[in-house]
């Protein structure tokens, strides 16, 4: 089976020309990291974890370092991961002071009988697993501080495009297994304790070898209400192409709730799609030695992978 990995760096308003290059490089690097693992015989789970961890470490994206701030000015992060081989999944919500929530989600999946740990319990589990804590301020960037300030000034602005960011990946490995991973700082100025779609299997992502894998981004409350990832895969099960399935699922969310967002999709044969209803979504896909990268509609560039 030819391996494939697709990543996204979040749906949102237009990326400024000043940031565009950094954002392109960030998603390209993450996809290349996942692809390297896959071509060396690594699993889809390892590939999505590595790709998402690379994006969590990149301050350009709303996950890990670079996460948006809650109403108190703190970082609280959500993440989830799932294997399409046996539907095993792990997630964390409202976690603080760790660099890579996606790695903690994987530990929840592999070392506990549960699917989701939150807040204090997740912190205690992280400590028991030897996951190092980082000072909260280390995850806060100047950009996220400014965004919170701006958001507080424009408090009545209900523009759903502002809910940008979140990172995610889907992959298919040589053995035919699929997986997804999604990680986020959530939405700026959220209430303390707010949990979005990202740690919820079926909303923030889904993976099942019988169909494929999906990772989502956008307005979390809307995504939760339509279970966006599962909805997109449902359309694939019904025989739609990946492009059609993504368009139908995102269209439903927009017409029912005026919710905007994006989705990356992969099927068990290795076809893939990246689609969004917000102004932009940074994404990258690696397959057959080629790297495809896009940010705004119609600006896809294709290069050879080393
Ligand atoms: N930008 C995002 O994708 C945010 C994420 N879906 C959330 O609502 O938490």
TrEMBL record:
Subunit comment: Heterodimer of an alpha and beta chain produced by autocleavage. This heterodimer may then dimerize in turn, giving rise to a heterotetramer.
Which UniProt keywords are listed?
Autocatalytic cleavage, Hydrolase, Protease
Q: Output the superkingdom of the source species.
A: Eukaryota
Record-listed E.C. numbers:
3.4.19.5, 3.5.1.1
Is Methyltransferase among this UniProt entry's keywords?
no
**Pfam family for this entry, one:** Asparaginase_2
The UniProt family comment states:
Belongs to the Ntn-hydrolase family.
- Give residue spans, biased composition: Basic and acidic residues: 140-165
Return the PANTHER family for the record.
ISOASPARTYL PEPTIDASE_L-ASPARAGINASE, L-ASPARAGINASE
The record's annotation in InterPro entries points to: ASRGL1_meta, Ntn_hydrolases_N, Peptidase_T2
Q: What is this protein called?
A: Isoaspartyl peptidase/L-asparaginase
Region of interest (Disordered), ranges = 138-165
Q: Which residues form the signal peptide?
A: none
Instruction: Give the catalysed reaction(s), semicolon-separated.
Output: Cleavage of a beta-linked Asp residue from the N-terminus of a polypeptide; L-asparagine + H2O = L-aspartate + NH4(+)
Q: Which organism is it from?
A: Pipistrellus nathusii
């Amino acid at each position: 089976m030819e391996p494939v990995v697709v990543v996204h760096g979040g749906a949102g308003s237009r990326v400024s020309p000043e940031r565009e290059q950094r954002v392109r490089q960030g998603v390209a690097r993450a996809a290349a990291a996942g692809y390297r693992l896959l071509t060396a015989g690594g699993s889809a789970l390892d590939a999505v974890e590595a790709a998402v961890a690379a994006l969590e470490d990149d301050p350009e994206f709303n996950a890990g370092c670079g996460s948006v701030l809650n109403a108190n000015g703190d970082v609280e992060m959500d993440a989830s991961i799932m294997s399409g081989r046996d539907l095993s999944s792990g997630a964390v919500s409202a976690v603080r002071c760790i660099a890579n929530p996606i790695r903690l989600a994987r530990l929840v999946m592999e070392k506990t009988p549960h699917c989701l740990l939150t807040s204090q319990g997740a912190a205690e589990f992280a400590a028991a697993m030897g996951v190092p804590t980082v000072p909260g301020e280390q995850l806060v960037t100047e950009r996220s501080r400014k965004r919170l300030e701006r958001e507080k000034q424009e408090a009545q602005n209900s523009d759903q495009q502002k809910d940008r960011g979140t990172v995610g990946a889907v992959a298919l490995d040589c053995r035919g297994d699929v997986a997804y991973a999604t990680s986020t700082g959530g939405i700026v100025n959220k209430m303390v304790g707010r949990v979005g779609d990202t740690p919820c299997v079926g909303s923030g992502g889904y993976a099942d070898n019988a169909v494929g894998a999906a990772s989502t981004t956008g307005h979390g409350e809307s995504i939760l209400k339509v279970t966006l990832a599962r909805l997109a895969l449902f359309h694939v099960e019904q025989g739609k192409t990946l492009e059609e399935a993504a368009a139908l699922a995102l269209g439903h969310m927009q017409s029912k709730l005026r919710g905007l967002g994006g989705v990356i999709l992969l099927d068990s044969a290795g076809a893939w799609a990246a689609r969004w209803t917000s102004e932009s979504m940074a994404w990258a896909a690696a397959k057959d030695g080629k790297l495809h990268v896009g940010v705004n509609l119609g600006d896809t560039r294709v290069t050879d992978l080393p």
